[in-house]
């Protein structure tokens, strides 16, 4: 069960990273995107999505 949750979390993180890369975010917080926790990636993605809706 733990393995499945971990795999799903990693898949979600990979998807978020790919979406952020599409928006041109390559490096932030002096870390590579893969080193950031998923919570930070989600925050960045939601922030970008909000900006796109307001355009």
TrEMBL record:
InterPro entries: Fur_reg_FbpA. Pfam families: Fur_reg_FbpA. This is Fur-regulated basic protein FbpA. It comes from Peribacillus castrilensis.
């Amino acid at each position: 069960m733990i393995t499945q949750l971990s795999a799903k979390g990693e898949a979600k993180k990979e998807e978020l990273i790919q979406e952020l890369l599409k928006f041109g975010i390559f490096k932030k917080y002096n870390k590579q995107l893969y080193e950031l926790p998923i919570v930070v990636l989600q925050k960045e993605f939601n922030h970008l999505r909000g900006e796109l809706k307001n355009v």
